Predict the structure.
Amino acid sequence: MGPDAICEQQILERGGEPCPNPRQKLDYLVLGIMGSRDWAHSSFGRKIEKAMEYKKAGHPIAIVSERHWSGYL
C-alpha cells in the first residue's frame, strides 16, 4: 500500500501495465483504502462503475482491495 507511483512501479516490475482509467482489457482494478459515503460522486467511484459495466458485459475484470493486492506482491 502506498503512493500511486510506488504501486505503479510494483506493477511495472512484474510485467504489468498501469492504466489510469478502466478499459475493457483491464485485468484488475485495485481499490485504495480511501472510503467515503460520497464515493459514487467522485472519479474513484466512476472507475468502479465503469469496471462493473465491463464485468457485466463479460470482461473478466477482478476488483480487489489494495490491501489484498499488496499481500500478493
Summary: The chain has a mean pLDDT of 82. The first strand starts at residue 28 and ends at 31.
